[in-house]
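Subject: Predicted fold for Ferredoxin, 72 residues

User T.R. writes:
Posting the sequence so we have a shared reference for the thread.
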Amino acid sequence: MTYRVTVDADVCISSGKCVADEPEVFRFDDDEVAELVPGAPDLADRRLVEVARNCPSGAIQVFDGDTEIDVL
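User M.O. replies:
I've generated the structure tokens; pasting them so everyone works from the same file.
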């Protein structure tokens, strides 16, 4: 099963790390909060974990089915 990712807008501090690392997958919304790009290409599971791990606020969550993956 492929991992899925979400961005918790309430936790995002708009550092831009995810947008800089994977601009085809993440972007800023009108409030400068990170969000997923609709129709974005799938990233490899390992890469999703790397991007989530690099988020300074922990706003990027990675799931395997309904279970959240501990990225730390």
